[in-house]
């Protein structure tokens, strides 16, 4: 808000007939170090002498303030629903916004997160086929509390690679 006050003072003193140097001296007495630079005073003094009335900045073209608009959120949602394996950089390219904004839209506005290689909601637990994990009481407790069970082949090396290379070497020592 301070810049509008400064501009108002510059406008008033310019209309009074003061030169930019005189305006600078008077503003330094009143505002001290927070007064605008001599260049700024000259610029605005010239603007006001040529008939400018507004204290506001001129509108500028350029990048929008935010890429997160309702339209972009809808575009991202439609792209994800059309292809659930689409990558964030592909969405960014198609929609014309940055990857960071795509990430923000997916996680904060759509409430999605990546799990199991897909965008989904909920908690997943992966257990091996040990008897304690396959017991009826354990399975019913998991389903009762809303956990999704993923079926997988027993003794799969993808589950615990340490079982297949690290532990046998530890047993030797």
From TrEMBL:
Domain Mos1 transposase HTH stretches: 7-51
Organism equals Loxostege sticticalis (Beet webworm moth)
**Classification via InterPro entries:** Mos1_HTH (IPR041426), RNaseH_sf (IPR036397), Transposase-MT_Hybrid (IPR052709)
Full protein name = Mos1 transposase HTH domain-containing protein
Q: What is the lineage of its organism?
A: Eukaryota, Metazoa, Ecdysozoa, Arthropoda, Hexapoda
Q: Offer one Pfam family short name for this entry.
A: HTH_48
Q: Which PANTHER family match?
A: MARINER MOS1 TRANSPOSASE-LIKE PROTEIN
């Amino acid at each position: 808000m301070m810049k509008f006050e400064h501009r108002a003072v510059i406008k008033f003193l310019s209309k009074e007939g003061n030169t930019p140097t005189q305006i600078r001296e008077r503003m330094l007495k009143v505002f001290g170090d927070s007064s605008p630079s001599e260049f700024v005073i000259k610029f605005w003094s010239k603007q006001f002498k040529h008939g400018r009335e507004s204290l506001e900045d001129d509108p500028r073209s350029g990048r929008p303030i935010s890429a997160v608009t309702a339209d972009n959120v809808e575009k991202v949602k439609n792209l994800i629903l059309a292809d659930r394996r689409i990558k964030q950089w592909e969405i960014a390219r198609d929609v014309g916004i940055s990857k960071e904004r795509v990430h923000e839209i997916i996680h904060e506005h759509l409430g999605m997160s990546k799990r199991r290689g897909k965008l989904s909601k909920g908690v997943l637990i992966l257990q091996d086929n040990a008897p304690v994990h396959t017991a009826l009481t354990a399975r019913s407790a998991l389903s009762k509390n809303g956990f999704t069970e993923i079926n997988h082949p027993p003794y799969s090396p993808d589950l615990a690679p340490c079982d297949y290379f690290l532990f046998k070497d530890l047993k030797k020592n």
